[in-house]
Design goal:
Low-confidence stretches: 1-34
Shape: globular
Distance between the termini: 43 Å
Structural class: mainly beta
Number of strands: 37
Largest sheet: 22 strands, antiparallel, barrel
Helix content: under 10%
Strand content: 35-45%
Mean pLDDT: 89
Length: about 900
């Protein structure tokens, strides 16, 4: 059982004190043990020979051991567990398909600002656009990259658009695939939560083959399954969800306020035997099966010429539980009642949104040397296809006698084909202490985005006059309408140049320039990066970077529109900014987001086995993408009056303005019982994120074993430096603002203000133990509650959903003959998310639920402890 009080009485910086204590004993008991700090990295600079220790930019390297000890089955989970600057918000900011295709933040910025590479080649993004939460974002789906394929991961915590192009604003994740020429691994893993639910299982395999003595082929495969772990609050006994019984023994189509018993009626006897926790969409609500296969290969053709290729394919089937449709909600809906759905679902139902996601990437290339230049010519094709379904659902515009409860919603598709030529060489000069590393490159890309409509029965009744007065469509997620279908293409080309070298033995300088041109947005302008590092001594070096960057709005975002109905007849429409409807409502065409970034840090090796780094950073993104305010005409109330999207009655002059806009936009003026709200993606302002990253790590002998420890921390703050004004067409209308409080929270405060991770691993003979302590700092949450006014209480406020501690423990045992076993406990002390303070809860929430969790934070809901056992065979 979770509580608002932390299970750890520690002060927030006891973790830091313990890390420093480890550092103090490291020099005295040093051992010659290699680690990730000395690995040569290929991310963040095209100058060769850089390592984590001597890099001019902050870089993390996650080894296979790190990934295994994270307990994650995919890269998404590993990054958020191991690196404090990465944060995965809970389910509430990412509803609907966003609860399946998850976006991870780096340095409290949008997921779309982190570039992902596989073996240095750009990974395609997801086909799914986030309409809520990270509005307009279409990021790389890290949940589709299996751990079994990975040799190590290089994480650049710095802007790198000049090196890699669009999206590399917050940083870059470079996944290096396994390249084994022999041997392999088989692994099985199984686990569950301490409450016995949330079963998860996985099987992984990889095998390397030598191609004579001239190359290799490394194969890998993974199958994972995850079951839900529901943590929804029980209902209050006074909250009714069956129709009440009237005095004449018939069912009532209405209940009292907050689902209380209406006057003159009696409680439905079914309330006595009901499921008192029917909402199944809080906690680990996903039911997921993921299978992945792939290869990595290289072959020496002779004469300084080699061929390489790699590919990955992932199939993910996911089910996400949505809001419970109660028997009363069905019976009180005239359309549902008349079409027999109350009889079909007499006890209510929980619809599920389902996806069948197929993502593939294929890369092939040649490397060689010509006239002193090392060249790399490659072609890279990636595609993501997401078929969307709603199952165990209903469309009230259909008769229940049809028996159809599963619907095909439509398909999101996206592909990226990139062709690159990279050139590098080293030139000895008289004015640098080491050879000058030069780099040049050209790139051409084609993108294709598609949104295909669903089956007619999935959207029947969404539009008034189409069988449902706007209250039809598959429940929880109506089908994509033909009017929203899209098939869009664009191309881009770019060129870059770079140079880097040690000007003196102690002073390293690295610079790069890039330009890109998009067929729809035009030129990016000149993008640059300048990094430098000066080593005063092995124990102290100063480093810094200044860069600018850009992010072209995703093709999926530019071409996306969506129309959905609500049970009360209110239609919600997201319109394209460049459409006639968007233009009529004040939208302007989307423009690239541009960024400026700076880092300044100190780093060094206090002793052979003790490294430290402190990096201060600031990133400012101009023209941040968000959604506009809802512009609406709502006549769903019984009085038939025109209201705006917030429910406020419109004055005659305001109504005339909105009616003229709707007519110009080609949108129908709602009739009594109907309503329509419209919004669009837009520039909401400029956002600045600043903070500091701290890393400490070391190794030493301890007794007859080896102790390895790592401490990492991130402290950050975000703010708007500019808010876009309300479009001229919408000025003077009521309740129109650039950013609602919810949207501001989603933009600035989803990630914790600070996060620290301390990992201590000890290995002695055949046994090992790894203990990881994570502290999640302040998590700001804002609330509004108009119900408090009647009691003289504040109607808005802020609370802290953070200051949480979790402890993960992994025990390892080398069984011999290639076998080893691990047993892990995640969240050992059963720390749960904070409960929402009562003052922030509306009367309706208090009447319905016994309590409520903040499900938007890093811990999601109250999952609790999780246990996992792993058996691995290395051959």
């Amino acid at each position: 059982m979770s509580s608002n009080k932390s299970k750890h009485p520690n002060l927030p910086f006891n973790t830091l004190a313990l890390a420093v204590s480890c550092a103090l004993i490291a020099p005295a008991q040093a051992a010659d043990v290699s680690d990730a700090a000395s690995v040569v990295v290929v991310t963040g600079s095209r100058a060769g020979g850089r390592t984590v220790e001597n890099s001019a930019s902050p870089i993390d390297v996650l080894t296979q051991e790190d990934l295994a000890n994270s307990g994650a089955s995919n890269l998404l989970g590993a990054l958020t567990t191991l690196i404090p600057s990465f944060s995965l918000p809970g389910q509430s900011p990412q509803p609907d398909l966003g609860s399946i295709v998850l976006g991870v933040q780096q340095r409290n910025l949008s997921p779309s600002y982190t570039l992902v590479l596989i073996n240095g080649k750009r990974r395609n993004t997801t086909a799914v656009v986030s309409e809520n939460g990270f509005a307009g974002s279409a990021a790389v789906d890290l949940g589709l990259i299996p751990i079994s394929a990975i040799d190590h991961v290089e994480v650049l915590r710095d802007g790198a658009s000049a090196l890699y192009g669009s999206a590399a604003i917050a940083g870059t994740v470079n996944v290096i695939l396994k390249r084994n020429a022999q041997g392999g691994n088989l692994s099985v893993k199984a686990g569950a939560t301490s409450k016995g639910d949330g079963d998860n299982r996985s099987f992984t395999a990889d095998k390397g083959f030598a191609l004579d003595d001239r190359g290799f082929v490394s194969l890998f495969a993974q199958l994972s399954k995850q079951k839900p772990a529901v943590r929804s609050s029980p209902l209050n006994t006074s909250y009714l969800y069956y129709p009440a019984i009237k005095a004449d023994s018939t069912l009532s189509t209405s209940l009292g306020p907050n689902n209380s018993l209406p006057a003159g009626a009696s409680i439905n006897p079914k309330e006595a035997t009901r499921d008192n926790a029917p909402w199944k969409n809080s906690g680990q609500k996903l039911d997921v099966r993921t299978s992945s296969v792939g290869y990595n290969a290289e072959y020496d053709l002779g004469g300084d010429l080699s061929a390489y290729s790699f590919a990955t394919y992932t199939d993910r089937r996911a089910y996400s539980a949505q809001n419970f449709r109660s028997p009363y909600a069905i019976y009180s809906n005239t359309l549902a009642r008349n079409n027999g759905w109350f009889g079909y679902y007499p006890d209510g139902y929980t619809p599920q949104e389902s996806t069948s996601d197929h993502e593939a990437q294929l890369v092939a290339g040649l490397r060689g040397n010509l006239a002193g230049w090392n060249w790399d010519l490659s072609s890279n094709y990636g595609r993501d296809k997401v078929d969307v379904y709603t199952v165990h659902s209903a469309n009230y515009a259909l008769p229940a006698s049809s028996g159809q409860t599963d619907f095909y919603i439509g398909q999101n598709g996206y592909s990226l084909w990139t062709n690159t030529l990279d050139l590098t060489r080293s030139v000895a000069t008289s004015w640098t202490a080491k050879p000058l590393n030069l780099s040049l490159g050209l790139e051409y890309s084609q993108e294709h985005s598609q949104l295909k409509p669903g089956e007619p029965n999935a959207y029947l009744g969404v539009i008034p006059g189409d069988g449902g007065a706007g209250s039809g469509g598959a429940q929880s997620l109506p089908g994509y309408l033909p009017r929203d279908a899209a098939d869009t293409k664009r191309h881009s080309y770019s060129a870059y140049a770079g140079a880097g070298s040690n000007v003196t033995d102690a002073w390293f300088v690295d610079a790069g320039l890039r330009g890109e041109h998009y067929s729809d947005f035009g030129s990016s302008g000149l993008i640059g990066k300048l990094s430098t590092r000066y080593d005063f001594s092995p124990a102290f070096a100063l480093r810094g970077t200044a860069s600018n960057g850009f992010h072209a709005p995703a093709l999926q975002t530019v071409s996306f529109s969506n129309t959905s109905g609500r049970p009360n007849g209110l239609i919600s429409s997201l319109v394209r900014p460049d459409s006639a409807a968007g233009q009529a409502l004040g939208a302007v065409p989307l423009a690239p987001e541009k960024a400026k970034g700076f880092t300044l840090g100190v780093t060094g090796d206090v002793a052979t086995q003790f490294n430290y780094a402190i990096d201060f950073y600031q990133t400012e993104v101009q023209h941040t993408l968000g959604t506009s305010a809802n512009v609406g005409l709502d006549r769903t109330n019984s009085d038939g009056q025109f209201r705006d999207a917030t429910g406020a009655v419109l004055s005659p002059s305001q109504l005339a303005i909105l009616q003229s806009y709707f007519t110009a936009a080609g949108l129908a003026i709602p009739q009594p019982g109907n309503g329509l709200t419209a919004h669009y993606f837009t520039d909401v302002g400029d956002v600045r994120s600043r903070g500091v990253d701290l890393t400490l790590d070391g190794k030493q002998k301890l007794g007859t074993g080896v102790l390895k420890w790592n401490f990492a921390a991130n402290f950050n703050s975000s703010a708007f430096t500019r808010l876009s004004g309300v479009p001229a067409k919408l000025q003077g209308l009521p309740n129109i603002s650039t950013l609602s409080l919810t949207n501001q929270q989603n933009t600035l405060y989803l990630a914790p203000r600070d996060k620290q991770v301390l990992d201590i691993a000890y290995k002695r003979g055949a046994y090992s133990i790894d203990v990881r302590e994570t502290r999640i700092g302040k998590v700001r949450r804002f609330w509004t509650n108009a119900d408090n006014a009647a009691q003289g209480l504040p109607t808005s406020g802020e609370w802290d959903a953070g200051k949480l501690w979790t402890t993960d423990v992994t025990l390892g045992w080398n069984l011999g003959n290639g076998f080893d076993a691990k047993f892990s406990v995640a969240n050992l002390f059963n720390q749960g998310a904070r409960r929402v303070p009562d003052i922030s809860r509306t009367n309706a929430s208090k009447a319905q639920y016994q309590y409520a969790f903040d499900t938007s934070g890093p811990l999601g809901a109250d999952i609790g402890s999780q246990y996992v056992a792993t058996l691995n065979y290395k051959f």
